[in-house]
Amino acid sequence: MLIHSRAGAVSAQQAKAALAADPRLKLVERAIKKFDARGDALLEVLSTAQEAFGYLSQDLMRYISLALHVPLARVYGVATFYHLFTFKPAGEHTCIVCLGTACYVKGAADIVSTLEGAYRVKAGQTTADGKLSLLVARCLGSCGLAPVAVMDGGVVGKETPGDAIGRVATLIGAIPEAQR
Ligand code: FES
After folding, report:
1. 156 lines ligand 1 (CB under 6 A)
2. Ligand 1 within 6 A of 139 CB?
3. Of all helices (H) and strands (E), which one includes residue 10?
4. What ranges in the chain are assigned the alpha helix state H?
5. Cβ(136) – ligand 1 distance below 6 Å
6. Cα of 112 to ligand 1 centre, how many Å?
């Protein structure tokens, strides 16, 4: 499908390319497929996107608009109507831990609870200083690498609680209070 903008025709493929190889997009694609790319699944797909990315970027909304064959204005309309949607990343950095079955059985919940304790933040929330958003996802489609985390868009496989703390510390440039 093509839409026309001032810059010319934009395909769903181009809109998708703008999101690069972000593994979180797989969750959105899966939701789109689950609903056979039906326009009436817009709210469900937006919810999945919000949960996976922590916010709805313009590229993401454009991609959803094209994939569901719904005008971009309608996507914006629905997204701005419901308070559960946000349009900016809450924290400067994002760490998403997969809690899908494969990751869960390999200890992903320990990674989440370790990060929660170390950075005094609950999953789904952002630290008081706004440096880190800790999010969880159901399956990032890389189950062979379980447990999987995505740190600022980069996939990390076979993660451990200790390594996750170190990686997040590097990411945000601060060691957790609990370890000072
Ligand atoms: S369950 Fe974690 S990547 Fe599939």
Report:
1. no
2. yes
3. strand 8-11
4. 12-17, 25-34, 42-53, 58-68, 72-81, 101-105, 108-119, 161-172
5. no
6. 14
Domain ranges of the chain: 2-81, 93-179
Ligand 1 mean position to 96 CA, how many Å? 12
CB of 140 shorter than 6 A to ligand 1? yes
Looking at domain 93-179, its CATH superfamily turns out to be Glutaredoxin (3.40.30.10)
Per-residue model confidence (pLDDT) at position 75: 92
Q: Is the pLDDT of residue 6 over 50?
A: no
DSSP 3-state assignment of 167?
A: helix
How much is the pTM? 0.65
Residue with tokens 């349009």: 87
Mean pLDDT of the chain: 85
8-32 per-position pLDDT tens digit: 445 666 767 767 677 888 889 999 9
Q: Which two tokens mark 91?
A: 């924290």
**Segment (H or E) for 2:** strand 2-5
Ligand 1 centroid from CA 140, angstroms: 5
d(CA 115, CA 113): 5
Residue whose CB lies within 8 A of the most ligand 1 atoms, among 135, 139, 159, for a mutation test: 139
Distance from Cα 173 to the centre of ligand 1, integer Å: 27
